[in-house]
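Moderator note: this is an archived Q&A kept for reference. The question asked for a predicted structure of one protein chain; the sequence and the answer are reproduced below.
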Amino acid sequence: MPKILVIGSSNTDMVVKTSRFPQPGETIIGGEFFLFPGGKGANQAVAAARMGGQVDLIAKVGQDIFGQQAIEGFAHEGINVAYVMSDPKLASGVALITVDATGENEIVVAPGANAALMPGDLDRDDAAFAEADLVLMQLETPLETLLHAAQKAHALNKKFVLNPAPAQDLPAELYSLLFLITPNETEASLLTGIELDNEAALPKIAEALLKKGVANVIITLGAKGAYFHNASQQFKIPAPKVQAVDTTAAGDVFNGALAVALAEGMDWPQAIDMACRAGAIAVTRMGAQASAPFREELG
């Protein structure tokens, strides 16, 4: 089993379905309400575990019911929770999510204990880094922690994969530490300043990221699949056509599945195809972690 270290956020998602999103200042009557475990780090850890990875998770939750339920959920998924910490002062992270009739979503996150996951927390036990085949991280925890994690992984010659979501500017020194970066279209434009108004812009954006020092680039394109670019290859992998119900964790499932595929030694087309298929299944289901498919579902 490939060993995946995921570092990142754990949230509880409070989801309301609605026919459409409200305008500023407007109140509308929604539909069903759901309470799901979420957070990009936790979502990607669950997705990787369901794809067959042996997953360690470094995260921080509050000493509250949401944190307790999160840890129990991780253990149920077979994730090692030895590195999941409880903060005595801060609440667990929560996300308020609305999902419209087309499956699109709008999300507001209150980070809580996620914002207190600091560089020193990564140094409590180096075994998680030493034993990992690949390290996967996102941007719902402090940037200083991300940079420290990338430096630790680089020092140990570990592949470090960054899913740069939610979109924000990154430290210049980070890029050369990345084996792979996986932005979506919005994130890719923000990181490079290049407008992605058509697919002809994809190579330009990828080249800009490579010039910053990244070794490999995957730009996720939602229902259109994913675009890969490095110094020697560039190609697009299509996604299966499905009827979307909730796109909330599609990117997280993609990244979790991709991490396992790469750690197993798949080549780029095989790995990205597996990730696209996993993400496509996820959007046909409600919820974040709940939507992640198991390996046998990929066929």
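Archived answer notes: The chain has a mean pLDDT of 95.
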